């Protein structure tokens, strides 16, 4: 930790000496905490950060030729691999490859979980949320059980025990509650040494005059550095070394809120490995022009995601001759990276990542120490995005999957039209209902009458039966026929391991 004098000199250099305005009001503990916070702020970096924020927010506007819509082009269809575009045998080959890599301990998953869940409106990390399934499982439990199952599938097929380590990037907001939650839930049956949490950095919000803000007398207003803070956090926390020690070669990186996420998806991993990719993105067909998903495309000839907050509205509306959205490769925040690629990016390029700007209302202390809650944006928050490293890839691939099977994110509280606990719950239950029907089950209501099978269930309606299948029984619909074929099942039905045992007999 630095001394007060050192802090003062550093802040003078960075033009931020006002931050010590209330120093004499602080008690010893607050002073120490503040000095600890200040000691990680390098004065030159801080100065660059503030200048960069102002320039990014209010700098020169791009000319017409430089503008995004002039430079954007869709991914040529022949460059997109995927579930709809491939036959069963090819898909099986990719899956086999993925399972083989998993069985050799070469695959890990990495969760981006530093966000505050502001839109969902809960004061705890999103992964701890339960969307109201019959089993009451939280997102974290579902994800953990999918890891356990995919490990088991690979171990059974190749005859040796294997591990898919789970790296979890948290932030100042989410580390402590996430750790506690995992401990209290005994790591959901995973080996604790294979669940590795680390923290991304926080960076200061910058007021429109280039100054930092105090949120308390001894605390600067900070925010996580975006999910692209991953690369710096990998270095800060020696995560790449841990991967190397374990022999991990391939990473499946995903964000916490998609209830249908296929953890360490063998098909996606196998596809990327077989194509020799160093970096890949899973996409779904974008549903409508305003859908809040980024689009994978090329900008100036280079692969990139253009985020929903940055794509010009008219560009998002463009359609091809067949009437489909021109920019339809919707990013579902499921990425593939080789460890080599991550090392290269983290070591050589993390400083070059674009800073994205958001103008936000950031509460601050005024000169008299009173907390002001602004009614309009007053500060710039800078964020890096995880996908901004695609440009450094030597072999980038895109993999399209079916939305109803793999993408239903939890972003908003119930009451919103899209991406709520209700839509997430319905997506999962509809999927499990489809799996059960495909395995040959018949559903009965409480009166013992057959419920006629329904297909094409939308997120606006509940499936006709309540059927939830534990990931410990089936990872993605497999192995259900021996349990369910020609069985008459009464809704609600929870197929967990105990129920599976009963059905076997
Ligand atoms: C920076 C970043 O990763 N943005 C992602 C991410 O958006 P959020 O709104 O930040 O959750 O998830 C979306 C999919 O749910 C994806 O479409 C988008 O591009």
From TrEMBL:
Q: Which GO terms describe its biological process?
A: UDP-N-acetylglucosamine biosynthetic process
What is the name listed in the Swiss-Prot or TrEMBL entry for this protein?
UDP-N-acetylhexosamine pyrophosphorylase-like protein 1
Q: Which Pfam families does this entry report, sorted A to Z?
A: UDPGP
CDD domains reported in the protein's UniProt record = UDPGlcNAc_PPase
Q: Which GO terms describe its molecular function?
A: UDP-N-acetylglucosamine diphosphorylase activity
- Family label: Belongs to the UDPGP type 1 family.
The UniProt entry, under InterPro entries, shows: Nucleotide-diphossugar_trans, UDP-sugar_pyrophosphorylase, UDPGP_fam
Which keywords has UniProt assigned to this entry?
Nucleotidyltransferase, Transferase
């Amino acid at each position: 930790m630095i001394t007060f004098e050192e802090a003062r000199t550093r802040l003078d250099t960075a033009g931020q000496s006002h931050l010590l305005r209330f120093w004499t009001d602080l008690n010893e503990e607050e002073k120490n905490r503040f000095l600890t916070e200040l000691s990680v702020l390098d004065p030159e970096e801080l100065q660059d950060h503030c200048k960069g924020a102002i320039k990014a927010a209010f700098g020169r506007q791009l000319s017409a030729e430089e503008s995004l819509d002039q430079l954007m082009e869709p991914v040529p269809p022949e460059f997109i691999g995927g579930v709809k575009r491939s036959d069963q045998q090819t898909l099986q080959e990719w899956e086999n490859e993925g399972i083989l890599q998993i069985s050799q301990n070469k695959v890990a998953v990495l969760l981006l979980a530093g966000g505050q869940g502001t839109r969902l409106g809960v004061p705890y990390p999103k992964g701890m949320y339960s969307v109201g399934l019959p089993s009451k499982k939280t997102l974290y439990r579902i994800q953990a059980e999918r890891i356990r199952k995919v490990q088991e599938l690979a171990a059974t097929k190749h005859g040796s025990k294997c591990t898919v380590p789970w790296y979890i990037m948290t932030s100042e907001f989410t580390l402590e509650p996430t750790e506690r939650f995992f401990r209290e839930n005994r790591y959901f049956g995973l080996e604790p040494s294979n669940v590795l949490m680390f923290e991304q950095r926080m960076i200061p919000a910058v007021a429109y005059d280039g100054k930092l803000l105090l949120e308390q007398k001894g605390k600067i207003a900070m925010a996580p550095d975006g999910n692209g803070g991953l690369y710096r956090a990998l270095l800060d926390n020696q995560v790449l070394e841990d991967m190397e020690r374990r022999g991990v070669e391939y990473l499946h990186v995903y964000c916490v809120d998609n209830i249908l996420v296929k953890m360490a998806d063998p098909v996606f991993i196998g596809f990327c490995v077989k194509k020799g990719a160093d970096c890949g993105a899973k996409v779904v067909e974008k549903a409508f022009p305003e859908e809040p998903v980024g689009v994978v495309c090329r900008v100036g000839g280079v692969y990139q995601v253009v985020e929903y907050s940055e794509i010009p509205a008219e560009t998002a509306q463009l359609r091809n001759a067949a009437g489909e959205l021109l920019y339809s490769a919707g990013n579902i925040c499921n990425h593939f990276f080789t460890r080599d690629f991550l090392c290269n990016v983290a070591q050589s390029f993390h400083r070059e990542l674009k800073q994205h700007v958001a103008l936000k209302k950031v509460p601050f202390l005024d000169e008299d120490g009173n907390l002001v809650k602004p009614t309009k944006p007053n500060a710039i928050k800078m964020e890096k995005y995880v996908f901004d490293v695609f440009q450094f890839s030597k072999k980038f691939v895109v993999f399209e999957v079916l939305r109803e099977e793999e993408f239903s994110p939890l972003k908003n509280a119930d009451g919103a039209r899209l991406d709520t606990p209700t839509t997430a719950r319905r997506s999962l239950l509809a999927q499990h209902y489809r799996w059960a029907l495909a395995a040959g089950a018949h559903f009965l209501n409480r009166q013992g009458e057959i419920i006629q099978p329904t297909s094409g269930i939308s997120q606006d309606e509940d499936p006709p039966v309540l059927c939830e299948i534990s990931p410990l029984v089936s990872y993605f619909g497999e192995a259900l026929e021996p349990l369910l074929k020609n069985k008459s099942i009464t809704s609600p039905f929870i197929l967990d391991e105990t129920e599976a045992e009963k059905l076997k007999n």
